[in-house]
Write a structure and sequence with these properties.
Elements lengths: L1 E2 L18 E6 L9 H8 L5 H9 L3 E3 L2 E2 L12 E6 L3 E2 L11 E4 L3 E6 L16 H9 L9 E2 L2 E2 L8 E7 L2 H13 L7 E9 L6 E5 L2 E3 L7 E3 L9 E11 L5 E10 L6 H8 L22 H11 L4 E9 L6 E5 L4 H13 L14 E2 L1
Parallel strand pairs: 6-9, 11-18
Antiparallel strand pairs: 1-2, 2-5, 3-4, 3-5, 7-8, 8-11, 10-11, 12-17, 12-18, 13-16, 14-15, 16-17, 18-19, 19-20
Helix pairs in contact: 1-2, 6-7
Amino acid sequence: MIADQPDDDFEDVAGDLPAAAGVITLVAGAETQGQRIDRVLAAAMPGISRSRLQGLIKLGQVMLDEAAVSDPGTKVRSGQVMTVTLPPPVAAEPLGEDIPLSVVFEDPHLIVIDKPAGLVVHPAAGHGSGTLVNALIAHCGDSLSGIGGVKRPGIVHRLDKDTSGLIVAAKSDAAHAGLSEQFAAHGADGRLQRAYLALVWGVPPRTKGVVDAALSRSSQNRVKIAVVPEGAGRHAVTHYEVLEIYTDTDGSPVASLVRLILETGRTHQIRVHMAHIGHPLLGDPVYGRGFQTRAARLGDAGRLALEGLGRQALHAAELGFEHPVTRKALAFQSATPVDFDGLTDALRAGSRHPVAGKIKRGRGRRA
């Protein structure tokens, strides 16, 4: 397939055709005979997602032998000329806001952020501003090349408002498509790795275990997610490993530090799964309400540290994925924040018996 130069100057990354505004002309090769035009264009223009190309076709921005095409399923014949008009990406609806960000990694295609607790990821009802998306629009500026035709960051996964740690966002259409594919696979192909640290009430029955329980919106409280019979909700699997055990002054286990690996990525998955097995997260106001009275067993220092935390004790500590454009394996680690460290220090100090193991501290870093 032969591509003519677009009308404007473009940056050509890794040999891909550009996703900026302009006109691109392609001649269908013999291998494209009888294929759908959206598939042919997606294969020839890897910098643009297939859904974006389908949208352009429906808007009349694609010509086939100088005739406008409106159906993405239109079949292509060898030798036909396809002309794609790429309009400039429009400005994002949310306004950019100058909100400080801890940037762990950034290149022309994606950005990895160490999100603080309290920062909402995406604008929604009650949170129309002051979100991570608002911050990214301001921080990335003109480097946002247009995802789906809009200058916005591509959010492929989320962290709860009060969960701290690593999150990646796409800056280009190609990166958005590639990251979305990896997160949809939930690490089944080995490219994506996610691990969390959490402080939970009590000690799980085994040092290592798996929680396999389907999740769905609660029928009693639409704000909550609940465990439901398999087939009645979305399949969800969480792996856990106990790292440290904390006791009260009598030497009885009262809490533990666990490392959690997601095999799936559902809303509130870790919080609901740990509560389901009887070990909700410390400070969880939704799924750990029945355990609030146990704070007295933490001792004065532990109780005050938990009050100071003021949120669920959950931190996204590790994130690894394949770069969607360069194909290079990337891995990042984030140290637990000060409030999380303060609680673990208080739990250790209040334990009758010493505990083994230490968790990483300091700034987030690339592995």
